[in-house]
Amino acid sequence: MSEKEKRVLLGNEAIARGLVEAGCQFFAAYPGTPSSEILPAVVRFKEENDLDIYVEWSTNEKVAFENALAVSYTGKRAAVAMKQVGLNVAADPLMSSAYIGTIGGFVIVVCDDPGPYSSQTEQDTRFMAMFAKVPVFDPANPREAQEMLPTAFEISEKYQIPVILRPVLRVSHAQQTVSFHPVRKMERRAAFQHNPERWSATPRFRFTLHKQLNAKLKHIAEEFNSMTSLNFIENDRDRAVLGIIAGGIGYAIARDILLEKGLQKEIPILKIGTPFPFPNAIVEAFLQKCDHLLILEETEPVIELQIRDKSKVIGRLDGTIPNEGEMLPETIAQVIGDLCRRFSIPIEESTSTLSLEKMVAGLGLPVRRPTLCSGCPHRASFFAIKKAFPNGIFPSDIGCYTLGMNMEAVDTCHDMGAAITIASGLYQAYHQDGKEMPIIATIGDSTFYHSGTQGLLNAVYNGARFVLVILDNSTTAMTGMQPTPETGITADGHPGRSLSIEELVKGCGVRYIRVVNPYDIKGMISETEKAYRYTQQRDGGMAVLIARYPCVIHQKDQLKIKPIKVEIRHIPPPEKGLPPVKSGAMDRSLLPVYQEEACAQCDTCMIQCPEQAISRTESGYVIDYDRCTGCRVCVVECPTSAIEMPSVGACIGCGFCLKRFECPSLVRREDGRVEINRLTCVDCGLCMEVCAQEAIYQVS
Amino acid sequence: MEDLTTNILLAGVGGQGVILASDIMSEVFMGAGYDVKKSEVHGMAMRGGIVTSHFRFGKKVYSPLIKEGEVDILFAFEQLEGLRWLNHLRPQGKVIINDHKINPPIVNLGEMEYPRDIPEIVRSRFKDFYLVKGTEIALQIGDVRAANVVLLGAISKFFEVAESLWLETILKHLPPKVHELNQKAFAAGREQISRS
Questions:
Q1: Which of A218, A402, A654, B23 could covalently link to A629 via disulfide, CB atoms 3.0 to 4.6 Å apart?
Q2: Does B110 contact chain A (CB < 8 Å)?
Q3: Residues 57 to 96 of B: which have CB under 8 A from any A CB?
Q4: Which CATH class is domain A566-698?
């Protein structure tokens, strides 16, 4: 027999492998960290093995779920994948599918994000499984996730119930050596059986279905009790002072710590792979043998709450394990060490790193917040929006562009599609008081397709008026460049039907639609102003701008058609006849001076000053030189030239481009001046438009 | 083959190729017959944020995460990121840092300073320290993107894994037109350690 093929796979790739080994015939997903890599890997295994698997990027999780569920109705095996907050979107079909059940195996892969690293919440999908009353598998590592999938499909088919596989980020984004089992070529044909009492059950039938569901769960729990591949005891013994019940990643962490501390013979572990329905018999039996029981599970006390007798239990409910944040090995090692000392279990002491920890903490190192990439078109859009409405309210949404908050152009980020609904709510709240605020909402193209249209329809229908900017970079950038309906490319790379955002917006009843190029910053500013004016007209309404420019990472070639190489001048050009700019502190002689006689008292300078350094008094405006950075914005914006400032034409170190444009390729030198980092600059030329000192110029 | 697990913490800034480097290392050590586990964070942090990859290999590895204080080798692609994770090292740990600085936004805003004398701070605590001119060498060779291959060359010197396995695996991940350049980068990285 030849040795099995082995490969190092990402957890999500191992899950994909498990899906094809289980004979999955239909797979749908919506991208979201940490789940996004499953679908591309399914496509890869499908092609490598010449399998007939239908694969789609659905427009959202609910859509993906219902499509896959219907396939299971026909007797085929189907699966769907999403991140944990995606299951909130699909919660409606999930609840109902538990009652109505399935025919062909149906597995829902939901990737949790304890930490959280890339999500709004740390929610534990095992609770969603309990809530919906569907079985859930909790893998400890990629290999186990792969091997659980065929079993998950079998349970699903045997009991006609959807099953959830819940990997956490440290499973989805871990890599491990994985053995390949043979792929299963499933050749089931669609055969939908008419059965209205089941498929369209009325409330009276739902009661019966609920009763059946409870019976199914009872049987599944019994089966889980005896499935030793999923729920098993390591180092079993008649008596133990301390035992551990560990689920998922908690098991992997516990195993390593016991091994390192030489405790593997002292402390038995009951590993729970199926936290719901609860394998109570095996847990009760284990409980009898241990004087004390530590529960290690990620993220909520799901196992812990289901243990009936809690007198021996140590875990989250008594505060021993932190109730928020990712479960870290160092924390668990500390807990196990403390318990060993408390219960007089001999333990190998490890060396303390406390002094180093104190040293590093004492340095107060600068954090490194994420920023939009060099040349990102969203940066240009946000700059223009903020410039057009310095005092606007900016609801935004989920994607790379949430980072517009660094530029103070994003005020809210709630859940997929909420930019539009939060904006209409804000509009109605102010409108009720007879006040109109400039509200400029931003949403990405993929997020708009996901759940933007309902909010937009509602805004139009109920008369909300705000500017919606759809940031269209023609990809789902943050999660790894998945195609959108606009590109028309399907999940397996074939050309499909391409949809138009303009038509969709028009279909929602919006009459004011403009497509703008954000790289034309001046044009973008004026279009934003015009759009807002339309919302204020008597016969106006909702205004939508589509800021269209490809993602610079995804389509670098398109950007490089016309590279604009720029440089920053540090010494004024000779024709200016001015002395070189001094290094270090800002030269007061370079700052703006207000001239009252020319002033029209229009407030423009006060509104436009990004540092709020200008205030109005009875005798005109006053510049607070402690706040003024010399960015020159007031000088450029003043319609009557009432603010004077020497035009140096060189970088004076005002920092405007660093703070307000925030391009990672603009770097502050030690003397406070700015230089361009050639290693990362993509020659987009946008910073030239931003510097009011005219210090940034194009080199030929 | 030693029984113990070796823990390597890779650290850098989003966009530096930290994840690619750790992917390559996975394949190399698996090819050399080890059990490999690693873990990292994808998504938003990648846009210029802090990136780490926990990399573990040995006979049998359970958890993908390395406990604080148990890193055997800290492999940093940037100076500040090397300093940031120093307390995760064992007292006798090895430190390999790319001699390169990337300002965090907060430094660019002038609100904080980039820490001074990082190599000196590291050296005062860890004898086994290598400052590798990864970015500088890559630029000399002609492509800054080869910096992570220079660094892989440097770290490869510390394991009894065939040089050819490293090189083969690296080239497999790169388009043919840059093979020659990256071969040079890898060799230059190895030489950095031989010389020190």
A1: A654
A2: yes
A3: 61-69, 80-81, 83-84, 86-91
A4: alpha beta
CB contact under 8 A, A351 and B90: yes
Q: Is residue B11 part of a domain?
A: yes
| pLDDT score of A452 more than 80 | yes
Cβ neighbours of B90 in A, within 8 Å: 351, 353
The CATH architecture one would assign to domain A377-487+495-559 is 3-Layer(aba) Sandwich (3.40)
Our CA-based measurement puts residue A257 at a distance from the nearest CA of chain B, in whole angstroms, of: 9
Contact B91 A333 (CB under 8 A): no
Confidence band of B1 (pLDDT split at 50, 70, 90): very low
B113 chain-A contacts, CB cut-off 8 A: 366
Residue A48 pLDDT class (50, 70, 90 cuts): very high
Q: What is the CATH number of domain A6-223?
A: 3.40.50.970
The answer to whether A133 touches A105, Cβ cutoff 8 Å, is no
What is the extent of the structural domain holding B129?
A: 6-194
Where in A598-660 does DSSP place strands (E)?
A: 614-617, 620-623, 643-644
pLDDT of B2 higher than 60 = no
Domain limits, CATH 3.40.50.920, in chain A: 232-351
Residues 6+ apart with CB under 8 A from B161: B28, B29, B32
Instruction: Find chain B residues with C-beta within 8 A of A356's C-beta.
Output: 86-87, 89, 125
Residue B1 lies in a domain: no
**Which residues of chain B are within 8 Å of residue A170 when distances are taken between CB atoms?**
39, 64-65
Q: What is the mean pLDDT of residues B14-39?
A: 91
The CATH number, out of the four listed (2.30.40.10, 3.40.640.10, 3.40.50.920, 3.40.50.11540), of the domain defined by the range A232-351? 3.40.50.920
Query: How distant is the Cα of A235 from the closest Cα of chain B, in angstroms?
Result: 16
Q: Is residue A562 a contact partner of residue A486, using CB atoms and an 8 Å limit?
A: no
Cα separations in angstroms, A608 against A59, A174, A611, B174:
40, 48, 9, 48
Q: What is the pLDDT of residues A606-625, one digit of tens each?
A: 999 999 999 999 888 999 99
How would residue A191 be classed by pLDDT, with cut points 50, 70 and 90? very high
In 10 A of CB A626, how many CB atoms?
Answer: 7
Give the residue range(s) of CATH 3.40.50.970 domains in chain A: 6-223, 377-487+495-559
Query: How confident is residue B3, by pLDDT bands cut at 50, 70 and 90?
Result: low
Predicted pLDDT at A586: 72
Question: Does B136 contact chain A (CB < 8 Å)?
Answer: no
DSSP category for residue A35: T
Residues 6+ apart with CB under 8 A from A350: A260, A261, A333, B69
